[in-house]
Every structure is written in C-alpha cells, then in structure tokens.
Amino acid sequence: EGTAVITVEVGDDEIYAKVRSRSKLKRCNVTLIDNNEAIVDFFETERAITPGQSVVFYNKNGMCLGGGIIK
Prior knowledge:
Elements: E1 15-18, E2 26-34, E3 37-42, E4 54-59, E5 64-69
Antiparallel strand pairs: 1-2, 1-4, 2-3, 4-5
C-alpha cells in the first residue's frame, strides 16, 4: 500500500544498494515480484534494516537505478 520499487534496470549484471545515506554500496540481487514489490538479497550482511527506510539501487559505476521504501 503506497510502497513501490522504482524501476531497476533489468540486465545490469551487478546491482548495489544502500539502506543508509552514509553506508557503503553493498552488492545485492533484486528479484521483482510484481510491479510494486521486490526481494533484495544482500551478498554481505546488512544490519538493522527497518520497515519505512529507503533503499536505493546503483549499478557498478555508481549510477542510481531507482529505489523504494522497505516494508
């Protein structure tokens, strides 16, 4: 409800994400469930992820691909 992942460019072989603005980019897999939801699996442990936080996705060159709100 009101939560959506903004388009992540499918086909990028390496996708990275940030949950906090000051954190480092962490590699992840993004599986789109439908047009409004995705499952994000980090390659490394990402601690204390909380519903309501934003997640932002980047390619390997640091270009922003999109983002959403964590449920």
